[in-house]
Amino acid sequence: MNMTDRLMGFALACGLGLLALAAGVATRSAAADDSAISPAIKAIQGTWVTSENDSLDAKWAFKGETVEVSVNGQEYTGKIKADDKAKPHSTLDIAVSEGPEESKGKTGKAIYKLDGEKLVISVSIPGHDRPKDFEPVPDEVYRFELMKQK
Fold first, then answer.
1. What's the N-to-C CA distance of the chain in angstroms?
2. What is each CA distance from 132 to 44, 85, 89, in whole angstroms?
């Protein structure tokens, strides 16, 4: 084996070693990020949708600590905090980072209840007080009855 072949082999081995190291770091980082997510948020992960009979056409997609929401064509993205120990109802705060101008930079405060494949969320307009119960209030509080999308 000549010197050029040895150098090529060494470079290839180093490159593969760095690739394996990077993959290991990325895997550990993703696992660490997943372990940092609260059990309350883990419980609602996935995509949830309204039924065809609902007056609101909504889709909520929880991915880690981020939620992407589509309601009747309006798109929202935000970082979430959930507290399933809050009383009398579990709470959800959505810090809206993307969406209509009147919502960006504000927090939508919500209450929720999770029952297996059903998630009910009652959320106020971003910047307003948290709902006290699950009853909708025109132009203030919206109620979503969502089913887990398979």
1. 57
2. 21, 16, 9
Specify the pTM.
0.75
Tens digits of per-residue pLDDT, 15-70?
A: 333 333 333 434 333 444 566 789 999 999 999 999 888 888 999 999 999 999 99
CB 56 within 8 A of CB 144: yes
Neighbours of 53 (CB within 10 A): 5
Among 2.40.128, 3.40.50, 1.10.3470, 2.30.29, name the CATH number for the domain at 39-148. Answer: 2.40.128
* Strand 66-71 with 58-63, pairing: antiparallel
Copy the structure tokens of residue 94.
């959505």
Give domain limits for the chain.
1-36, 39-148
- The residues near 124 (Cβ < 8 Å, ≥ 6 apart) are 108, 109, 110, 130, 131, 140, 141
d(CA 131, CA 125): 10
Written as six digits, the tokens of 73 are 């064509």
Reading the block at residue 84, the tokens are: 């399933």
Which residue is listed with tokens 């990020």? 33
How big is the chain, counted in residues? 150
